[in-house]
Structures are given as structure tokens and as C-alpha cells.
């Protein structure tokens, strides 16, 4: 079985479990909406939003809900003691990593489908000003964040304090992708948008994602060794 085909089977397995239980999607979605409502009360005065706040609020919400989802990436296998069985399947280790990453990206994408319109509604952000650029920033920034996060979630699976350690090690390492996504979004939402800078940040995000994914695929097998 090819790596990509095996990765799709693993991702489909995770998504099928999530569709039946709906545990993580509901939890992450509720958490994201709650964050937006709290920020709305804090940063919206009358009908005026604090300058540059919507871009930061959008990415903070994505990061927080993504961290919640990352904490459950390998949790089902750990609780059911099937992680070893997953690692013993006749597929290459990078396929397991890619499958987990793919299912996580689909989950985060579904959350963003709700979060982005809410940011536009609650904070008056011009989300339709450059929709394809905004979607590119969200996709590339989220991919970089999830690429690093999936690797660290795997590393901390057997650690008792994984829920505490994951944000500590994840945020500094994924900072380039998060800053790139936030800065690009900031220039789209600005009163005087600068699309040349947005394109620069998009190019940098492509580079960051390529580096993160290469390193993750290279280190995943040793990390998950017995």
C-alpha cells in the first residue's frame, strides 16, 4: 500500500470515529465560539472594534481550538491501548503521521468555516475583501501549526503531563507559521490593505510549511520507535 493511500485510510478511520462520536468537533467548535464571544465583549465598544484586533482574535481562536484538537490526536489509541497495533500495521511510519495530520486539518478547516464568518459579523472584519488570499493564509498557517503540533502530540503521547507540555513546546516552534498567517491577515483587514505584503507572507508560509513537513516526516519514525 502506498504512503498516500495508507495515510488516507488512517485519516478516514479517524474521521469516521469522529463523525460517530462528534465529541471533538463539538468541543472545539464550542470553545472557538466561546472565545470569539469573550473577545467581542472585551474589544468591541459600541459598534467600533479596536484597530488590528480582528486578525489577532481570528488567529488566537484558531490556535486555541487547534491545541484542543491536537491534544486528542493520539488520545483514542492511547486510551484503547491500540497505539502499538497502529504502529505495527504494515505501512510506513510517515503514512501514520500524514493520516493524523490530514484528519486534523479537515477538522480545523470545518471549525474555520464557522469561525471566519463570525469574526466578520462580530468585529466587522472585511473577510470578503480578498477571499482567496485569506483562504490561502488560513490554509498555509493552519498547515504549519498542525504539522508541528501533530509531531509533538506523537512525541508526548506516553507522557503523563502531555496536556501541559504540548502548548509549552508547540507555540514557540510553530511561531513562524502563526506570525506569518496573522501578519498576512492583518494587511488584508487593514484600512489600507497591502496585497504585496500579503503575497510575501504567503510565500514565506509555503517555505515554512515545506521545512516543517520535511522535518516532521524525517523525525516521526524515530520518535515513535519503541
Summarize this, please?
The chain is mainly alpha-helical and 226 residues long. The chain is built from ten helices and two strands; from the N terminus they run H-H-E-E-H-H-H-H-H-H-H-H.
Explained architecture:
The protein is an all-alpha fold and 226 residues long. It has one domain (3-223). It contains 10 helices and 2 strands. A two-stranded antiparallel ribbon has the order 1-2. Helix 2 (23-43) packs parallel to helix 6 and helix 3 (53-70) runs antiparallel to helix 9. The longest helix is centred in the middle third of the chain and has 31 residues, at 93-123. The mean pLDDT is 87.
Taking Cα atoms only, what radius of gyration do you get, to the nearest Å? 18 Å
Structural class determined from secondary elements:
mainly alpha
**In this structure, how is the largest beta sheet organized?**
2 strands, antiparallel
Q: Estimate the strand proportion.
A: under 5%
> Tally of extended strands?
2
For the record, the count of structural domains works out to: 1
Compute the number of helices: 10
Helix content: over 70%
Q: Report how far apart the termini are.
A: 23 Å
Order of helices and strands: HHEEHHHHHHHH
Topology (elements, then pairings):
Elements: H1 3-21, H2 23-43, E1 44-45, E2 48-49, H3 53-70, H4 75-79, H5 83-87, H6 93-123, H7 131-155, H8 162-173, H9 175-189, H10 195-223
Antiparallel strand pairs: 1-2
Amino acid at each position: 500500500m502506498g504512503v498516500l493511500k495508507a495515510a488516507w485510510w488512517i485519516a478516514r478511520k479517524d474521521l469516521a470515529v469522529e463523525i460517530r462520536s462528534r465529541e471533538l468537533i463539538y468541543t472545539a467548535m464550542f470553545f472557538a465560539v466561546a472565545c470569539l464571544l469573550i473577545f467581542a465583549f472585551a474589544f468591541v465598544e459600541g459598534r467600533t472594534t479596536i484597530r488590528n484586533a480582528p486578525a489577532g482574535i481570528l488567529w488566537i481562536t484558531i490556535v486555541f481550538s487547534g491545541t484542543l484538537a491536537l491534544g486528542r490526536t493520539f488520545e483514542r489509541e492511547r486510551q484503547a491501548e491500540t497505539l502499538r497495533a497502529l504502529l505495527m500495521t504494515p505501512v510506513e511510519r510517515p503514512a501514520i503521521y500524514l493520516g493524523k495530520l490530514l484528519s486534523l486539518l479537515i477538522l480545523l478547516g470545518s471549525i474555520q468555516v464557522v469561525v471566519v464568518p463570525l469574526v466578520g459579523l462580530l468585529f466587522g472584519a472585511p473577510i470578503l475583501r480578498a477571499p482567496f488570499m485569506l483562504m490561502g493564509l488560513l490554509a498555509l498557517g493552519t498547515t504549519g501549526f498542525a504539522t508541528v503540533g501533530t509531531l509533538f502530540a506523537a512525541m508526548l503521547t506516553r507522557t503523563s503531563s502531555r496536556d501541559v507540555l504540548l502548548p509549552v513546546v508547540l507555540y514557540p516552534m510553530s511561531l513562524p507559521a502563526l506570525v506569518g498567517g496573522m501578519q498576512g491577515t492583518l494587511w488584508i483587514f487593514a484600512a489600507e490593505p497591502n496585497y504585496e505584503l500579503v503575497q510575501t507572507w504567503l510565500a514565506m508560509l509555503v517555505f515554512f510549511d515545506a521545512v516543517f513537513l520535511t522535518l516532521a516526516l524525517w523525525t516521526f519514525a524515530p520518535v515513535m520507535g519503541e
